């Protein structure tokens, strides 16, 4: 082992550039008799042909092999630069470890250095220490004793990092400990105060860190050891072991079924194929277009660590809001199983290891953007190096959430991302879940990725969007130029580039057959939803952006039953002005051309925190200041929105809807402010309704109906409050079923109270867009069903196929059920 003495350590070094830093550490090696002065030039020469930046603030400059004769005795020296030295573009070094090695005597030291490298907190300490022995101890501490202890304990099946309280459990999960089950495990572990660790073989993970669990590489049917230590360790161990045995909600993967083999006749093309893996069935014909992310530029360093840490926290909070909104959109459009990945993404953003590494980098003087990118990139690389194919795919998820936050921290965005100006087949190395979920099926004819597999989220979401897709086609597909004509066959997993005219005819005929079938299904989307015995149900759309109003009309919607106005308030540094809101609402009334528009006032709080509002932290935000409570507490937000709505009411049939009404007092207070605004503006009266989302509103529905023009049941929130299950909880969300009899009985009570008062009831939660739910809701007496745009045609078709008498009978049977499963079995 190399002896490292105080004479080999330079504290508080100063250098304006990399060359000066190398010369300083080289002078220590020369002074200690390790090398001749000429070897300093050799160290500088190496920098021109190789990068000696090791990562995380450490560099290891050394000379060229041809100059080893200049080394007198193997040794190292360390120069500390508390202010940091820029090594290469974007690389800041705090510890320069100069090496003069004639053979491999320095390998053990480098092994210790590698251990230190992954410990950002230790590097932060060493970068600022005023005691040379701190650096010496870290780099020369022998690992022999630890190794021997581990080997000895391994023989007895005891490990130095194991807690006394533990249990071995087989992973009852076909996919192993991948993102979804790992998310569920973390959520359960966080409910307990005890420390939780998980062992798989020789690897140990923090049981409350999603990234740490993924790094275990625990694939299907392996045995893991769950270890706990703390005052509630018995309860924690039982809960975690039971969850693992039950599969950690892995059955939700059934929603991600692989593409079903097509019954169509296999197409025979003469053009040689680029072979991939079938990801989503269908035929796409068109030019290819390469997908490119924008280049996110962030500063390397920053002046104030406190400011940068605040920026990071705000960016993460905003990213969580985006992901929750994306989850809700995908869930409404494609179901809970397809949307569940975004719950895992939210959990990634709460990962303590990921955040701690970034914060440590910030305290070393880096900007929030640089620190965050360094943290998530390293974790993605670790997960990507795992052997299990399914687990390796989760590295793309880490990169996805990393880029989402990084974009919010960007100093600049260069190289505009791919903008689809004409329909094309999108070709990419890979697509993140967020990238895929945002794709416009009208512009993206098909998807072909070089990487990924049929279980990748690119494939899963492509199927939910009904976009033909091929994955795992290999890097060669990236070599073709934009504009090359292609045929993508999602049934076989083949891409045909520069096809012959004959092949194009074959593909077009097959595509036309598919389109004819779809057209037959959608032709009736503009017909009213009238049951076979003449009962009319109004089918309208939930929207969250101005552009979606026209899409809703084109899909057959008879209006907008819920406009989520939060889109105007999110992803910005200040609230929107009255004028901005007015213009947005007017854009919608114009697109709707006389159809009704129900505008829900601002519903923020709980799961939609907005950093610029500086709301105080709440122990349970779902029971705190959210929805109408926030509006009443912040008239500076509420009144401008009401003015914008009353102005928009002059351009089309607009209604106001207050969210999260729990008491009569809240409704009266909100109506008083609305009436005050109306009188100030001398505007015409507008119908005012309320969301029924909490049990108290249901029980007080007879009283609330005296002061409201209509009710709209928000089944998403009502379900989580009635069943006491967070609808975003990874391990509970699938049980939070709005078709549970308890929820249906709440809706039944609401409808009865409304009918007695002579007002109508709509439902704007997820089950309104579920044909099964629509049938039961119709039977309960709901007169308006509001849903995601793609569900409109299917729900209308469902209503037209049943009689009202049948749906009433169905609803009565559903109310008599004991479980959600029984209801769905009807």
From TrEMBL:
Keyword Nucleotide-binding in the entry? The reply is no
Q: What processes in GO biological process is this protein linked to?
A: phosphoenolpyruvate-dependent sugar phosphotransferase system
User: Catalytic activity annotated for this protein?
Assistant: L-histidyl-[protein] + phosphoenolpyruvate = N(pros)-phospho-L-histidyl-[protein] + pyruvate
Q: What does this protein do?
A: The phosphoenolpyruvate-dependent sugar phosphotransferase system (sugar PTS), a major carbohydrate active transport system, catalyzes the phosphorylation of incoming sugar substrates concomitantly with their translocation across the cell membrane. The enzyme II FruAB PTS system is involved in fructose transport.
Top-level division of the source organism's lineage: Bacteria
- Name the EC number(s): 2.7.3.9
Which SUPFAM superfamilies is this protein grouped with? Enzyme I of the PEP:sugar phosphotransferase system HPr-binding (sub)domain, HPr-like, Phoshotransferase/anion transport protein, Phosphoenolpyruvate/pyruvate domain, Phosphohistidine domain
> Top EC class per UniProt?
transferase
The record ties this protein, via PROSITE patterns, to: PEP_ENZYMES_2, PEP_ENZYMES_PHOS_SITE, PTS_EIIA_TYPE_2, PTS_EIIA_TYPE_2_HIS, PTS_HPR_DOM, PTS_HPR_HIS, PTS_HPR_SER
Enumerate the spans annotated as HPr domain. 164-252
Q: Does the keyword Kinase apply?
A: yes
GO MF annotations, alphabetized:
kinase activity; metal ion binding; phosphoenolpyruvate-protein phosphotransferase activity
Instruction: State the compartments where it is located.
Output: Cytoplasm
Residue stretches making up the PTS EIIA type-2 domain: 2-142
What Gene Ontology cellular-component terms does the record carry? cytoplasm
Q: Which CDD domains match?
A: PTS-HPr_like, PTS_IIA_fru
- Keywords, A to Z? Cytoplasm, Kinase, Magnesium, Metal-binding, Phosphoprotein, Phosphotransferase system, Pyruvate, Sugar transport, Transferase, Transport
Task: List the cofactors.
Answer: Mg(2+)
Q: Which family does it belong to?
A: Belongs to the PEP-utilizing enzyme family.
Q: What is this protein called?
A: Multiphosphoryl transfer protein
Q: Which InterPro entries match?
A: HPr-like, HPr-like_sf, PEP-util_enz_mobile_dom, PEP-utilizing_PTS_enzyme, PEP_util_AS, PEP_util_C, PEP_util_CS, Phosphohistidine_dom_sf
């Amino acid at each position: 082992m190399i002896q490292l003495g105080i004479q080999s350590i330079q504290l508080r070094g100063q250098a304006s550039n990399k060359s000066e830093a190398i010369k300083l550490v080289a002078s220590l090696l020369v002074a200690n008799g390790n090398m001749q002065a000429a070897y300093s030039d050799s160290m500088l020469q190496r920098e021109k042909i190789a990068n000696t930046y090791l990562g995380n603030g450490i560099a290891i400059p050394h000379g060229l092999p041809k100059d080893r004769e200049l080394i007198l005795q193997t040794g190292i020296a360390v120069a500390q630069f508390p202010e940091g030295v820029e090594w290469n573009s974007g690389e800041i070094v705090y510890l320069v470890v100069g090496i003069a090695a004639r053979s491999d005597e320095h390998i053990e030291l480098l092994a210790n250095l590698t251990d230190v490298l992954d410990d950002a907190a230790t590097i932060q300490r060493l970068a600022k220490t005023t005691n040379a022995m701190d650096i010496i101890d870290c780099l020369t501490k022998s690992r022999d004793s630890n190794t021997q202890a581990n080997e000895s304990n391994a023989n007895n099946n005891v490990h130095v990092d194991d807690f006394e309280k533990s249990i071995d459990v087989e992973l009852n999960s076909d996919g192993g400990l991948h993102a979804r089950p790992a998310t569920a495990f973390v959520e359960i572990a966080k409910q307990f105060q005890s420390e939780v660790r998980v062992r798989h073989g020789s690897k140990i993970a923090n049981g409350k860190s999603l990234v740490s669990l993924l790094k275990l590489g625990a694939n299907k049917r392996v045995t893991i050891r769950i270890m706990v230590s703390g005052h509630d360790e018995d309860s924690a161990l039982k809960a975690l072991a039971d969850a693992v045995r039950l599969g950690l909600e892995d059955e939700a993967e059934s929603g991600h079924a692989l593409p079903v083999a097509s019954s169509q006749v296999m197409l025979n093309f003469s053009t040689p194929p680029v072979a991939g893996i079938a990801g989503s069935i269908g035929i796409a014909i068109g030019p290819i277009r390469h997908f490119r992310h924008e280049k996110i530029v962030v500063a390397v360093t920053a002046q104030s660590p406190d400011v940068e840490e605040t920026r990071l926290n705000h960016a993460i909070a905003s990213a969580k809001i985006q992901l929750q909104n994306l989850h809700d959109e995908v869930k409404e459009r494609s179901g809970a199983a397809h949307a569940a990945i975004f719950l895992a993404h939210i959990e990634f953003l709460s990962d303590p290891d990921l955040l701690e590494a970034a914060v440590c980098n910030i305290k070393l003087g880096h900007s929030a953007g640089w620190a965050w990118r360094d943290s998530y990139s390293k974790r993605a690389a670790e997960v990507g190096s795992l052997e299990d194919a399914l687990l390796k795919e989760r590295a793309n998820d880490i990169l996805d959430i990393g880029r989402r936050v990084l974009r919010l921290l960007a100093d600049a965005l260069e190289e505009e991302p791919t903008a689809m100006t004409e329909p094309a087949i999108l070709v990419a190395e890979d697509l993140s879940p967020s990238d895929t979920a945002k794709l416009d099926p009208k512009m993206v004819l098909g998807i072909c990725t070089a990487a990924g597999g049929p279980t990748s989220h690119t494939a899963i979401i492509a199927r939910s969007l009904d976009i033909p897709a091929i994955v795992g086609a290999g890097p060669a597909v990236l070599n073709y130029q934009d504009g090359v004509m292609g045929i993508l066959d999602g049934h076989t997993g083949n891409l045909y580039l520069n096809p012959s005219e004959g092949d194009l005819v074959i593909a077009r005929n097959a595509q036309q057959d598919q389109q004819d079938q779809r057209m037959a299904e959608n032709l009736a989307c503009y017909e009213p939803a009238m049951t076979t015995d003449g009962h009319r149900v109004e089918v309208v759309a939930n929207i969250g952006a101005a552009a979606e109003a026209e899409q809703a009309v084109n899909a057959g919607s008879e209006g907008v039953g819920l406009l989520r106005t939060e889109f105007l308030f999110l992803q910005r540094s200040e609230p929107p002005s009255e004028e901005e809101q007015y213009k947005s609402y007017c854009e919608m009334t114009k697109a709707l051309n006389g159809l009704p528009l129900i505008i829900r006032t601002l519903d923020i709080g709980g799961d939609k925190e907005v950093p610029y509002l500086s709301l105080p932290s709440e122990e349970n935000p779902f029971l705190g200041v959210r929805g109408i409570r926030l509006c009443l507490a912040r008239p500076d937000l509420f009144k401008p929105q009401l003015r914008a709505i009353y102005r928009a009411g002059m351009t089309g049939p607009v209604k106001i809807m207050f969210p999260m009404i729990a008491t009569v007092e809240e409704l009266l207070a909100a109506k008083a402010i609305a009436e005050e605004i109306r009188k100030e503006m001398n505007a015409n009266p507008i119908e005012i309704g309320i969301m029924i989302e909490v049990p108290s509103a249901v029980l007080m529905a007879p009283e609330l109906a005296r002061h409201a023009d209509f009710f709209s049941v928000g089944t998403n929130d009502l379900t989580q409050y009635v069943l006491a299950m967070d609808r975003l909880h990874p391990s509970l969300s699938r049980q939070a079923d709005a078709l549970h009899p308890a929820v249906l009985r709440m809706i039944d009570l609401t409808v009865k109270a409304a009918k007695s008062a002579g007002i109508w009831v709509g439902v704007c939660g997820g089950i309104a867009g579920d044909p099964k739910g629509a049938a039961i809701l119709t039977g309960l007496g709901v007169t308006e069903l509001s849903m995601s745009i793609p569900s409109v045609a299917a729900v209308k078709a469902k209503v037209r196929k049943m009689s009202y008498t049948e749906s009433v009978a169905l609803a009565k049977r559903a109310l008599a059920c004991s479980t959600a499963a029984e209801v769905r079995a009807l």
